[in-house]
Amino acid sequence: MILQQPPLWLALVAFVCVLGPLVFFHELGHYLVARLFGVPAESFSIGFGRELFGWTDRQGTRWKVAWLPLGGYVKFVGDMNAASEPGAAEDIPEELRARAFQFRPVWQRFLIVLAGPVANFILAILIFSAFFTFVGIPRTNVVGKVLPGSAASAAGIQPGDRILSVAGRSTPTFDDISNVVSVRANEHVDVDLVRDGQPRTLRVTVRSDSSPDPFGQKIPHGLLGVYPTAQALQPVPVYKAVPLAVDYTARLTRSMVDNIGMIFRGRISPTELKGPVGIAQFAGQAASLGVLPVVVLIALISINLGFINLLPVPMLDGGHLFFYIVEAIRRRPVSEQIMEWAFRGGLALILALLAFTTFNNLASVGLWDRLERLID
Fold this sequence. Notes:
The chain has about 375 residues and is of the alpha+beta class. Among the domains are: about 10-35 and about 105-135 and about 295-375, no CATH class; about 140-230, Roll (Pdz3 Domain), CATH 2.30.42. The protein has eleven helices and ten strands. The strands form four sheets. The chain has a four-stranded antiparallel beta sheet with strand order 5-4-6-7. It has a two-stranded antiparallel ribbon with strand order 1-2. Strand 6 (about 190-195) and strand 7 form a beta hairpin. Helix 1 (about 10-35) packs across helix 8 (about 290-310). The radius of gyration is 24 Å and the shape is elongated. It starts with 7 loop residues before the first helix and ends with a helix. About 30% of the residues are buried. The model has no long low-confidence stretch (mean pLDDT about 80).
């Protein structure tokens, strides 16, 4: 089903409402662990650029909201900029020098930086825990229908089979089955299932298909050809919801690793990557469906944000963590020249990726076709 494009104003408002809490929780993770170790912060910003409004707390930290809502940062005492590049020691007030971020032990700096992505995973777990407690969780991986002529039919999968895993990946729900199969078009995979109480393993050749995403863009994907049995969402007690949410978050993260691997292997086109424009599209569409889809979208993007920030790319948290590991092994920091070139390269990579995803996301909404018609 192709959903209507959301109005521009709704997409923009939803984008800010989705990204704002994610950035806040991410930066709050950095801030709280830094406070635990006594590291003072100069500013805590949601957004970049000129400040729109803010206040200064008793510790001297400036809490502010800036006009460009594409991220945020915590600038600690001793940081040269928002990317936490260390400044000159002589520029730090003497009474704060011992507490400055850059002079803390490497393990403390590691944990402060790691806390941001971890906070995003925690936010997702909290959201999914609440969803499973008050709304419910799909508890079926039982096949209700097999499409004639499909990959599942050719392999011998039957209604009533309980699919336990696909390609070695656990599939407790049909969402998991879909996530595993969708990135394995034309691949031969083993499907572990239970039929009449007996375990079986079937070899399946996943078919390839393409379908429009909610905005009409054709997306290729793998297709098994099975439907679940009809089963309503089942609420679970909170003590069960939390471990289920942790497991669900872990499986979604593993799917992201799969997707990145498929991109490098050429199985998934890089044009499917979503940037700010794509996120705004999905946020606007979710907002048009109600509050609950927006909350679930926040959880999904929070996992993405936490995972991406752990990648070892300079300028991202993962890049800092990588250099801290190197520093711990070498017992001395990486040279300032190497750090400077690494940050420049990381910034160039991030800007290039941002431009690439923005160009493709604008193409998905037909902007370039409209401009071409205007020129013609």
